Amino acid sequence: MNTNGVVDAVQLELAVELGSTTMTVDELLRLAEGSVIELAKPVGEEVDMTVGGSPVAKGDVVVVDGELGFRVTRMVAPSEKGEDPATA
Fold it and tell me: Is the pTM for the entire model greater than 0.85?
């Protein structure tokens, strides 16, 4: 299919989820500079990359020239997303 570059030029926002946690409003209000929030994700475990909230890849957090990066270790299959592969 020839898209003449139209689709190729569409920008998408990617997100990489390092982990998550649950806290009360009181705990949130007590946060200050230097506070540490423990994330429910073991060190070294793959993290998820999402587009529009849907997982598209798994990978590792890496450091590239002093900045955080994401190395894709595998793409997420439609069956892992909870979608019907015939309609995905």
Answer: no
